[in-house]
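Subject: Protein record for review, amino acid sequence with backbone structure tokens
Why sent: The fold of this protein is of interest and is recorded here as tokens.
Enclosed: The protein record, placed directly beneath this head.
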Amino acid sequence: MEAGPRYKRVLLKLSGEALLGGREFGIDPLMLDYLAREVTDARQLGGVQIAIVIGGGNIFRGASAQGMERVSADHMGMLATIINALALQDALERLGTITRVMTAIEVRDLAEPFIRRRALRHLEKDRVVIFAGGTGNPYFTTDSAAALRAMEIHAEVLLKATRVDGIYDGDPNIDPKAKRFDRISYLEILEKELKVMDATAISLCKDNRLPIVVFNLKIAGNVRRVVQGEPIGTIVH
């Protein structure tokens, strides 16, 4: 008999780059469909409520906008997350998954404004909620938005989907001797300055004791496995 879900309410953090697939820019339809299948597969465990925060780096990355004023660049990045959220919503609903996009920046013709109680109600009605627009404020990354939204909806865990199978003490793509951690503390990440999430997001999770699981998104079925509590990736505690 297959194990049921370990976590009943999760927040999945996807980077904008996750939508690139083999492209250098924009959205790869094949990757979009793959992500939608991964989320839908995890929901089929039954009793799992899933919220998603998605980045916008596949469309616009403020850090690369040479000479652009930071606030303007950050607002453009937040708008890019709305494009990605609408694309993911479409892919999910083509698989029969009911979704709602909620955004911190109001675009009423396209998505609902973020209202915490309404978001909780959507989750209780078994809808996948995609949070877009970051926090609605410049100077905050989508990692920070993911940590914030996870607290607001009382998620049991923050799932950080990446291109590698956990947290290493170096770049495993460059250093073959890089050591992978099965478990690591928030404080160790901050002290070692490991590139997992930004310091604001890590500190917010630490202060509120929200566990983070960092895992490889490229392995099919991993979203389902991590929701079931299988020992994959790295747990930040």
Notes: The first strand starts at residue 9 and ends at 14. The helical segments are 29-43, 70-94, 116-124, 142-152, 186-192, 199-207, 222-228.
